[in-house]
Structures are given as structure tokens and as C-alpha cells.
Specification:
heterodimer, A: 296 residues, alpha/beta, 33% helix, B: alpha/beta, Rossmann fold, nine-stranded mixed sheet, Elongator complex protein 6 (chain B), nucleus (chain B), cytoplasm (chain B)
């Protein structure tokens, strides 16, 4: 699903890349920017966390003439005299104005790096409202946002992600450059698709999906296995037929003390042997420990 | 300055990466030896250094630096070092007996709600070298020991993160200098707090800083407990894409702090073991 999302989202789409301190989702975000630039789309980056130089350095080799950077990095709170974009300007009017100013009449892709910065300074309902308005507004075709999920309460992350049409959660992979992406995609019909994939990002920001982890598939087959009858292919019988039961009841068990057995033991027949023992003087018989002479 | 650490980080006072935000963190351990390392490192590299010392007195840092072969007094005299002694400054604000000494840097103590803008202004003006000494010193460097102390002084996590963001934007991006910040955390690492716990401010601060930094040095105690010959372990984590194309790269070392330096070695290769 990841490659399809990279190839382009439907108009009105809202994609969130969720990351944590263990693995930064920024490179994946850059891959999305790179892919959009390669499709000759205008990309507007609202950068709170990365400077313009660093972003352009990271996107080396892409068509950055269609990239418009709105600098919210140098002065996001208006502490100096000429702030370019402050976090308090994050509203529909200002953003539409910014995008219309620079881009052609074609709707553009808006990249927000990151939503966490905005959520830290604005109340979540405001942010959600603005995002929803942007989605519907028309000036923006697609919104792609980075969200540091571990910085916020779970409820806030949840409500922002509910707005999104696709959520990609990235986590570190088992080795080296690999990372795991959990993708949840909601199509307009309301169908929700989930997929997990291992990917790595090449130096030119292309994403290579290596494989799908196998444990997802095995989880699906689990219920089928439980339905099968464990007594189906046994090498022995679990139930008895009537004749078998009668035969079983007839059989005398070896340690049941029957009358015949008792008499056979008590009255030994004629001619049977018997042990007579008379201790002589040399016999050292210890009353208290009769087994004293045994070499145990 | 620990030469072993320099070789691990692949830097030296003569050539170091500019524009880096280095986060030094410790968890149930003490990482201040790394702050002393970076202080002496950047002074040797002839950088203009601004040191925000909130934990110890000037004489403490001076004495440790002396052992590491750097004189803070000389650096201060030459104008290379700007030292904010947080303990002294805060005392003059909390107990205003003398006439106002003029420094606005610790103004947040009067009203923590206003944020750390005044402290940032202090850093910015300190590093902008107005007295024409720009050619004399190399790129500016900001060292903070330590940022989590601000939380105990009533500053919110958000304000502390804003401060670090502005420092990073100004020092790292604009002036191509470096920032080193220490943050402490007392809790266990695997504690599942999900950000719901408002009391765990230091944890949130550490997470926020980890998202900002380009290089993280995480100091931990040994998981197996106290050891006389190994004082703990350091995880070095490069978060920015390296020249060889790798992004998140991690290395783990054990260390022992000596009287005049520290030795770093791979896990299990301490001289006490081998």
C-alpha cells in the first residue's frame, strides 16, 4: 500500500506520518515531497522543525523550483521583529493566501513539518478544524503531515488521525536501515485497509518496500486451525462399542483380590517348598537392624 | 576533552561538524562529565562559547576545566567564553537586596509563565559578538547544563522546548554553530507513560529534545548494577543522515570516568573483565 500512497493520493486526501523518538519519519516525509515534485506538482512546505537549507539539502537532485518553503522555523512564536510565519497564523485564510500567492491556479500539496509543533501551541480542536477546512477548501489538493505521536496524549493523536484518510506509523526495523511501516487507509466508501511492510529509503529518497512481515498472514489463518477437530485422526479409539464394553467388564484386573486368588495364596498346595532357618552361634543377628549385614 | 570520545564521534577540535544539535541525556546516572568534555572541546576549537550553567557554580566548572587543561578564567577574559552562572543570577532575583545587576536572562523566575524569551535573548546577544571580535573566534557554541533544571524552576516543558528550538534555529541554522544540551531523567526507560502523565515532565522534555537533535548521547547506568570498573554505558545515536547514506545509526559503549578524562570501550571489553 505504501508505494501506491507515494504515487499519489486522491484529491482531498490527508496523510499523516506518525513517528516516535526511536525512528524519525522525516525521511519518509521527504520521500513523499520528492515523489510529489517528480509528478510536477507544486509543493508547499510549512516547516516548523527543519530549516529551508536542511530541507533543500535533503532533497538534493529533486526539482526544487516547484518547492515553496514557508519559514516557520526561524521564528515560530514571533520573538524577533519580522516573523515569516508564526504558529498563530495557522488558519485557513492565511494558509490559502500563502498558497495562492506563490502557486499557479492548480491545487497544491501542503506538507506540514510537523503537526506536533502546532499541537503544542494551539488547542487541538482549533488545529483539527483548520485541517478539516483545508481539506475541503480547494486550494490544497493533498495535506501531508508529520506527527510525533509520543509527544502528545493518546486522545489528541487519535482525534487528529481520525481526520486523516491515511495514517502511516513508522517504527525501527530489525536491522540497519530497515523500518516498519503500518499503513491504515480509509477509502471514501468507508472501507478500511491495513497493511504492514518493511521498507528502506535509498539515498535518492526512493522508498523500497522489501517484504511484508509474515506474522500478519499467520494471524489470519489462526481461526481456521482452531476449527479443525483435534480428535479426527487419532491412532486409538476414544469410544467403546457394546461388545467391547462387555469384554472389558469381564476382564479381571491383576490387582483385584478375588476369592480364588485369596484361597490359592493361603492354602499352598501339597509338595510346595518352604524355607526353614535356624540361626547358629556365628550368626550375628541384630534385632534392631536386621539388614545390618547387607552392603547397601 | 576526551580523545577517545572524539574518535568515536569522528571529530576533533580542528575539524568538527557545524550546525549540530547534540543532546546529552542521562537516566539514573550522571552525564555531566560529557558537558565538561564539550566545554573544553569547543574552547580548544577556538569557538565562541556561551555556557548556561544552571546546576553548578562557576568555580566548579572552572576547577574541572583546569583538570582537563583549559582555563575558563582566561577564556572569559579574552571574550571567548560567556558564562551565565544560574545559581548566582537566580539568587539575585529571588532575594533582591542589591540594586538590579542588569541581567535579564533569568527573568523567567519572576513569572515562569512568560517563557524563556529573555534567556534566549541573552544567548543570542552573547553569541552575536557585537564588539567586533567576529574574526577572532570560530562558530558560536551554546552549552546548557542542564535544561531539565528549568522544569524545577517552574518553567513548562513547552517553554523549555521553545527555548531549545529558538537556540537551534539561531545557533545551528543561522550561525552554523553547535548546541549541546543536557537533560536529565529519573524514571525507568521502559515505563509506559503515553504522555498522559502530566507529572513526567522530564520524560516529555527528553522526547521533545530527541526529536530536535541531530546527535544524541544517552548515558545510563549499567543494567546489571553498580560496578567499580565500569561506570555506565553511553549510547551514541546519529539521527541525521550521514555522508554514507545511513540515517539512524546507533552505537553502544561502556565508559569509566577517570580523574582527568574518561575511557570508552565496547561492551564487555573492560580491562577488569579481560
Amino acid at each position: 500500500m505504501l508505494p501506491e500512497l507515494l504515487q499519489g493520493t486522491d484529491a482531498g486526501g490527508f496523510l499523516i506520518i506518525q513517528d516516535s523518538v526511536n525512528y524519525s519519519g522525516r525521511h519518509l516525509l521527504w520521500s513523499f515531497i520528492n515523489a510529489a515534485l517528480n509528478r510536477e506538482e507544486a509543493v508547499h512546505v510549512l516547516g516548523f522543525e527543519v530549516s529551508e537549507e536542511e530541507l533543500k539539502d535533503g532533497l538534493k537532485g529533486s526539482h526544487i523550483q516547484r518547492l515553496h518553503f514557508h519559514d516557520a522555523y526561524t521564528d515560530p512564536l514571533g520573538w524577533t521583529d519580522q516573523p515569516a510565519f508564526t504558529v498563530h497564523q495557522f488558519c485557513l485564510e492565511k494558509l490559502t493566501h500563502l498558497i495562492k500567492q506563490t502557486s499557479q491556479h492548480k491545487p497544491a500539496t501542503l506538507v506540514i513539518d510537523s503537526l506536533s509543533w502546532i499541537l503544542r501551541h494551539r488547542c487541538p480542536p482549533d488545529v483539527c478544524k483548520t485541517l478539516q477546512q483545508l481539506k475541503k477548501g480547494g486550494a490544497v489538493r493533498v495535506i501531508i503531515g508529520l506527527l510525533h505521536a509520543d509527544m502528545h496524549q493518546r486522545g489528541i493523536v487519535g482525534s487528529v488521525c481520525h481526520l486523516a484518510s491515511s495514517v502511516i506509523t513508522v517504527a525501527p526495523g530489525m536491522k540497519g536501515d530497515e523500518a516498519v511501516a503500518k499503513t491504515t487507509k480509509r477509502s471514501k466508501s468507508g472501507k478500511v485497509m491495513q497493511e504492514e511492510a518493511i521498507f528502506c529509503i535509498k539515498e535518492d529518497l526512493t522508498v523500497v518496500v522489501q517484504s511484508k512481515p509474515s506474522h500478519l498472514g499467520s494471524r489470519q489463518t489462526d481461526p481456521e486451525e482452531q476449527e479443525t477437530d483435534p480428535t479426527a485422526n487419532l491412532t486409538f479409539n476414544l469410544r467403546l462399542s457394546d461388545t467391547e464394553r462387555k469384554a472389558k467388564e469381564k476382564l479381571a484386573l491383576p490387582f483385584v483380590f478375588s476369592k480364588e486368588k485369596k484361597s490359592a495364596l493361603l492354602h499352598s498346595g501339597p509338595g510346595s517348598g518352604r524355607i526353614l532357618y535356624e540361626p547358629d552361634a556365628n550368626d550375628d543377628y541384630d534385632q534392631e537392624d536386621p539388614d545390618d549385614d547387607l552392603d547397601v | 576533552m576526551f580523545t577517545e570520545l572524539n574518535s568515536i564521534l569522528n571529530t576533533s577540535p580542528d575539524s568538527f561538524t557545524q550546525g549540530e544539535f547534540i543532546l546529552v541525556s542521562d537516566r539514573q546516572s550522571d552525564a555531566s562529565f560529557l558537558i565538561h568534555h564539550f566545554l573544553s572541546f569547543y574552547l580548544r576549537a577556538r569557538c565562541k562559547v556561551c555556557f548556561v550553567g544552571l546546576v553548578q557554580s562557576y568555580s566548579h566548572y572552572s576547577a574541572v576545566s583546569q583538570r582537563l587543561g583549559v582555563s575558563l578564567a582566561q577564556a572569559k577574559e579574552k571574550g571567548q567564553l560567556i558564562f551565565l552562572e544560574g545559581l548566582k543570577e537566580s539568587l539575585s532575583i529571588l532575594n533582591p537586596q542589591e540594586a538590579d545587576t542588569g541581567s535579564q536572562a533569568m527573568d523567567f523566575l519572576r513569572d515562569p509563565a512568560v517563557g524563556l524569551r529573555s534567556l534566549y535573548e541573552f544567548v543570542r546577544s552573547g553569541l552575536s559578538s557585537s564588539d567586533g571580535g567576529e574574526d577572532e573566534w570560530g562558530p558560536p557554541v551554546l552549552l546548557v547544563d542542564d535544561l531539565s533544571v528549568l522544569l524545577s524552576l517552574g518553567v513548562s516543558v513547552g517553554a523549555a522546548l521553545d527555548f531549545s528550538h529558538y537556540c537551534r534555529a539561531t545557533v545551528c541554522s543561522q550561525k552554523q554553530g553547535n548546541v549541546v544540551m543536557l537533560a536529565r531523567c529519573d524514571g525507568e526507560e521502559d515505563e509506559e507513560d503515553d504522555g498522559d502523565d502530566e507529572g513526567e515532565g522530564s520524560e516529555r522534555l527528553l522526547k521533545g529534545l530527541s526529536h530536535q537533535c541531530s546527535l544524541a548521547l544517552q548515558v545510563r547506568g549499567l543494567p546489571t548494577g553498580y560496578c567499580r570498573d565500569i561506570h555506565g554505558q553511553v549510547e551514541v545515536c546519529w539521527r541525521r543522515r550521514q555522508a554514507d547514506g545511513q540515517h539512524t545509526q546507533k552505537k553502544l559503549f561502556q565508559y569509566k570516568v577517570h580523574d582527568k578524562g574518561a575511557s570508552f570501550f565496547a561492551r564487555g571489553t573492560s580491562s577488569a573483565v579481560l
